[in-house]
């Protein structure tokens, strides 16, 4: 277990380093924008405002809030303190609602939607890929082109098609929102049912997108493993087929877990866009509102939260990987 | 080299992908030669005209008329003007008036209208019918009356002096014009978009711009990735550590977050198609760098590289002649994938409203974004989004097919 502790510590340190770096980027990138960021922002906010003194007051307020009149390290320090206290600023587009409040309302939806969808998509995709590698023939010939096509299909495209087919034409599911617009969130059966019904289209469109890529990856891995010496040796030894498949699946699975860790960021990105198509009240839709409303604090905070979520997901997968891959322990024990 | 090419073109997957890609590419190159309109000219006053052939009504009045006595002409005319809702409403009224439901067939226009003519009575009061509904039926009855009239329409012109209308001609119901002879006919195979622009012309221009964005982004990403990967893999040591540190950072930090932050920071005004392409390129080199590094490390200690080192060749020379040719196929494959993901990245950004400036050029992502904002999907205006989606899918699909084909040629373990 000592070896695993070491693995865990290394990963944790790495995770924290990445976090600091991401945090820095989140701070620096918007400040690299040409000209005075506060001037740009106030110009966006005060568009259509006729009163000159009003615009001046807005400028003063944001200059104060961002501390642009202070040296950069002091600005950074202030930013860190604010974020640590959960103070992500005040939204421009939904003034005077705090950004933390808006994000708090949407983050739950995103986690509840994307986490299960990505996991389910990953499981189905891997099973299909392994089956294709093992069965070969017709199943493989049909599944592979479909997988390649689906995995290259843009996330929003899948969402739009699901929406049109099942939402508009067949009218099986509602087309937008996280629950019926005539309901207020409450623990009633009606509300819960509404949430479940609204959940289906975004969920399955994310699942469908993630299946293709995983199936392709798993198929190649499984084909590679099926040709490995240990499989031939096992066959000579007369070990039962299903037991060999168990070995193959386990070995082919490990790179797929790493693959999940590496691609989770891209997957979350696609899923956020899918949320937008369905107006699902998650982070993707919040981000869109931020862009439409030129809401700088909201965008900055939303991207920070998304980064942190992806980092945590990544970290969790690495931790699980360390637990199930014997090679990690062996390597650490050396 | 020739042998490799022959092998590549023997792979079914590659050839299929290549054919689709070349077809799309030729389409974007040849179409503007035939239809020379600027892609963003607004020609339609209104949103989402459905696909079809648009014939100038004014010009067709002036064209030579031909009399065709077609038996079904009258029937077709009435059938096309009587909407599905009207038919259902007629049925409802007839049922309420006591006609057995089995006798009514909304698909049989002739019979439905005869029944309506025989039975409708504006004064008849039907229990439970609102006043608005009653008025609707009166209007419906009038419009049906107009449909059934066998007389032609009168053309009139206002007298310039008195302002009184003077009859200048009539149009009989059996009059036809030959579309070939009408001066102004516009074929809109994909209708118009929400701004009234010809969808097909716009789509072709958008595909070209998106492909360029993909290429620029892909080439930038591949160049950065290749350089970093070669340096990290070949030189090793602290250089490798440093590059890998950065690469690992950017692997975990989602690239679309960087894309969003940078695009938003640049601001709408400065965001041209080229800028977006460069930004995408600068945020997506990570995979290439990792892959190239792994390949180079496996090559680094091969005999021919060592020989080259012993012969005193410079590092640059070794990289160029002893390493690069061995990973060339890999780099080409990575480039293809980068191009396709660059096109997708642009589309994703545009959907968020962070795409290129909207007034310059159309891109596939911007077209999707417009369709989304104007709710083409919910309103059933399939021509506004489906062709765009199909184009994006075909471009990325063809590139990935090529990639898979190449993979199978260069990586025999994956061959079927």
Strand-helix topology:
The complex is a heterodimer of chains A (334) and B (416).
Chain A: H1 2-31, H2 37-45, H3 52-66, H4 72-84, H5 99-135, H6 137-152, H7 155-169, H8 189-226, H9 229-236, H10 241-277, H11 283-292, H12 296-324, H13 326-333
Helix pairs in contact in A: 1-12, 1-13, 2-3, 5-6, 5-8, 5-10, 5-12, 6-8, 7-8, 7-10, 8-10, 10-11, 10-12, 11-12
Chain B: H1 2-8, H2 12-34, E1 52-55, H3 57-62, E2 66-67, H4 73-81, H5 84-96, H6 109-119, H7 131-148, E3 153-158, E4 165-171, E5 175-176, E6 185-188, H8 199-235, H9 237-252, H10 255-266, H11 273-283, H12 286-300, H13 303-310, H14 315-351, H15 364-373, H16 376-379, H17 386-410
Antiparallel strand pairs in B: 1-6, 2-5, 3-4
Short account of what is shown:
The complex is a heterodimer of chains A (334) and B (416). Chain A is mainly alpha-helical and 334 residues long.
Walkthrough of the structure:
Chain A is mainly alpha-helical. In chain A, 79% of the residues lie in helices and 0% in strands. In chain A, helix 7 packs across helix 10. The longest helix of chain A has 38 residues. Chain B is mainly alpha-helical and 416 residues long. Chain B has 3 domains: 262 residues, MetI-like fold (Orthogonal Bundle); 54 residues, no CATH class; 76 residues, no CATH class. Chain B has 17 helices and 6 strands. Chain B has a two-stranded antiparallel ribbon. Chain B has a two-stranded antiparallel ribbon with strand order 2-5. In chain B, strands 3-4 form a two-stranded antiparallel ribbon.
What's the helix-strand series of chain B? HHEHEHHHHEEEEHHHHHHHHHH
Roughly how many Å apart are the termini of chain A?
13 Å
Widest β-sheet, arrangement of strands of chain B: 1-6
> Quick one: CATH superfamily of the largest domain in chain B?
MetI-like
Q: How many helices of chain A in DSSP terms?
A: 13
- Give the amount of beta strand of chain B, in percent: 5-15%
Q: What is the CATH architecture term of the largest domain in chain B?
A: Orthogonal Bundle
Task: Specify the CATH architecture of the domain at 101-292 in chain A.
Answer: Orthogonal Bundle
The end-to-end span of chain B amounts to 23 Å
Give me the CATH fold name of the domain at 101-292 in chain A: MetI-like fold
CA radius of gyration of chain B: 32 Å
Oligomer: heterodimer
Rg of chain A, Å, rounded = 24 Å
Q: How can the largest sheet of chain A be summarized?
A: none
Low-confidence stretches of chain B: none
Number of domains of chain B: 3
Q: What is the helical fraction of chain B, as a range of percent?
A: 55-70%
């Amino acid at each position: 277990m000592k070896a695993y502790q070491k693995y865990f510590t290394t990963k944790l340190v790495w995770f924290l380093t990445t976090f600091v770096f991401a945090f820095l980027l989140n701070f620096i990138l918007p400040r690299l924008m040409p000209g005075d960021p506060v001037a740009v922002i106030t110009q966006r906010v005060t568009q259509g405002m006729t009163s000159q003194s009003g615009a001046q007051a807005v400028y003063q307020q944001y200059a104060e809030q961002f501390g642009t009149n202070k040296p950069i390290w002091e600005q950074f320090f202030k930013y860190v303190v604010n974020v640590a206290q959960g103070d992500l600023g005040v939204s421009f587009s939904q003034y005077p609602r705090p950004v933390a409040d808006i994000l708090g309302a949407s983050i739950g939806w995103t986690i509840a939607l994307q986490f299960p969808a990505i996991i389910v998509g990953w499981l189905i995709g891997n099973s299909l890929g392994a089956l294709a590698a093992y069965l070969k023939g017709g199943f493989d010939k049909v599944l592979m082109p479909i997988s390649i096509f689906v995995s290259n299909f843009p996330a929003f495209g899948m969402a739009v098609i699901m929406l049109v087919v099942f939402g508009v034409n067949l009218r099986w599911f509602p087309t937008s929102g996280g629950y019926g617009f005539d309901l207020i969130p409450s623990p009633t059966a009606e509300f819960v049912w509404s949430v479940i019904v609204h959940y289906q289209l975004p969920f399955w469109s994310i699942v469908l997108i993630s299946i293709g890529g995983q199936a392709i990856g798993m198929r190649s891995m499984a084909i590679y493993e099926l040709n490995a010496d240990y499989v031939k040796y096992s066959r000579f030894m007369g070990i039962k087929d299903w037991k060999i498949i168990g070995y193959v699946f386990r070995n082919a699975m490990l790179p797929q877990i790493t693959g999940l860790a590496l691609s989770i960021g891209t997957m979350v990105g696609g899923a956020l866009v899918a949320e937008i198509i369905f107006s699902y009240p998650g982070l993707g839709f919040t981000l869109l509102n931020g862009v439409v409303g030129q809401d700088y604090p909201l965008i900055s905070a939303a991207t920070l939260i998304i980064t942190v979520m992806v980092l945590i997901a990544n970290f969790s997968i690495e931790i699980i990987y360390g637990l199930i891959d014997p090679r990690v322990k062996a390597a650490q024990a050396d | 080299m020739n042998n490799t090419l022959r092998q590549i073109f023997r792979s079914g997957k590659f050839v299929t992908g290549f054919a689709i890609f070349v077809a799309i590419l030729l389409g974007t190159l040849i179409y503007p030669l035939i239809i020379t309109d600027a892609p963003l000219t607004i020609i339609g006053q209104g949103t989402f005209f459905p696909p079809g052939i648009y014939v100038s009504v004014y010009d067709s009045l002036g064209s030579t008329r031909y009399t065709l006595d077609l038996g079904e002409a009258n029937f077709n005319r009435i059938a096309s003007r009587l909407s599905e809702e009207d038919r259902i409403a007629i049925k409802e009224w007839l049922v309420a008036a006591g006609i057995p439901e089995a006798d009514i067939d909304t698909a049989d226009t002739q019979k439905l209208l005869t029944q309506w003519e025989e039975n409708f009575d504006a004064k008849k009061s039907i229990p439970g019918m609102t006043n608005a509904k009653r008025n609707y039926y009166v209007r419906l009855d009038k419009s049906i009356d107009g449909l059934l009239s066998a007389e032609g329409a009168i053309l009139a012109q206002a007298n310039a002096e008195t302002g009184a209308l003077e009859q200048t001609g009539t149009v009989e119901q059996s009059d036809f014009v030959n579309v070939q002879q009408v001066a102004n006919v516009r074929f809109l195979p994909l209708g118009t978009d929400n701004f009234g622009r010809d969808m097909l012309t716009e789509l072709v221009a958008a595909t070209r711009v998106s492909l360029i964005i993909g290429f620029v982004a892909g080439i930038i990403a591949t160049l950065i990735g290749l350089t970093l990967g070669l340096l990290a893999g070949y030189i090793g040591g602290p250089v490798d550590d440093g590059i890998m540190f950065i690469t690992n950072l950017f692997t975990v930090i989602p690239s679309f977050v960087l894309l969003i932050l940078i695009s938003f920071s640049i601001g709408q005004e400065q965001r041209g198609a080229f800028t977006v392409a460069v930004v995408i390129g600068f945020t997506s080199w990570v995979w290439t760098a990792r892959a190239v590094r792994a390949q180079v490390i496996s090559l680094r200690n091969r005999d021919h590289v060592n020989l080259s080192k012993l012969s005193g060749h410079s590092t640059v020379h070794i990289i160029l002649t002893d390493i690069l040719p061995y990973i060339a196929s890999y780099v080409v494959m990575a480039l293809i994938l980068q191009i396709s993901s660059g096109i997708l990245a642009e589309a994703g950004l545009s959907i968020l409203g962070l795409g290129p400036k909207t007034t310059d050029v159309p891109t596939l992502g911007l077209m999707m974004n417009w369709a989304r904002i104007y709710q083409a999907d919910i309103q059933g205006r399939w021509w506004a989004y489906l062709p765009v989606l199909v184009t994006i899918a075909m471009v990325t699909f063809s590139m990935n097919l090529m990639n898979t084909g190449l993979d199978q040629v260069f990586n025999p373990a994956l061959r079927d």
